[in-house]
Amino acid sequence: MIKHAALADIQYFDWLEENLDQVMSLEPSALTTMIKWSCEIKAGIVAQDEKETGVRALLNFGHTFGHAIENGMGYGKWTHGEAVATGMVMATDLSVRIGMCTLDDGRRLKRLLQAVGLPVVAPESMKGRFIELMLRDKKTTDTGLRFVLLESLGRAKLIDNVSLDHLGLTLDASSQLL
């Protein structure tokens, strides 16, 4: 749900930050609001692109890095949600490094993920393995790696051919992102 807010709706992201205590205590009206908002975002994106040839790929925010973590650690060591959460932080760090997103937006996302108990740092054992594992991912295109990066909180964009220098900086800093 944080992913939906981060990639598509800054008002939803703001709401999650402001209502986190109610969400974490499973307050029914907060959960209803959150579920409805996320379903509307996902349904709206899927309706625009039923065959996943364009905008629907935005739902893969965090997945390029996250799938590498799942694969590199061995499936089941990290949940899909944990890997994607860390992947979202890594993707946002990359967004900041290439000048698409502000550091403040990146830090807000990282804080919210931490507040709900999700990991935000890749396992140390992944150092040096990310690119190899990302290139095996099913979401890789003919031209190479495809990332969903943030232009700002609430606005994501598909990016191909990210500079390996920028990607390397994110991968090298994986324990000190944002």
What is this structure's SSE topology?
Layout: H1 2-8, H2 10-18, H3 20-24, H4 28-48, H5 63-73, H6 80-97, H7 103-115, H8 130-135, E1 146-152, E2 155-160, H9 164-172
Antiparallel strand pairs: 1-2
Helix pairs in contact: 1-2, 5-6, 6-7, 6-9
What class would the helix/strand composition place it in?
A: mainly alpha
Quote the average pLDDT. 90
End-to-end distance:
21 Å
**Gyration radius over CA:** 16 Å
Write a structural description.
- This protein is mostly helical and 178 residues long.
- The chain has nine helices and two strands, in the order ααααααααββα.
- It has helices at residues 2-8, 10-18, 20-24, 28-48, 63-73, 80-97, 103-115, 130-135, 164-172; strands at 146-152, 155-160.
- A two-stranded antiparallel ribbon has the order 1-2.
- Helix 6 runs antiparallel to helix 7.
Brief synopsis:
With 178 residues, the protein is mainly α. It is built from 9 helices and 2 strands, in the order ααααααααββα. Strands 1-2 form a two-stranded antiparallel ribbon.
Short key terms for the protein model shown above:
Dehydroquinate synthase-like, alpha domain; 178 residues; 9 helices; 7% strand; two-stranded antiparallel sheet; globular; 56% helix; mainly alpha
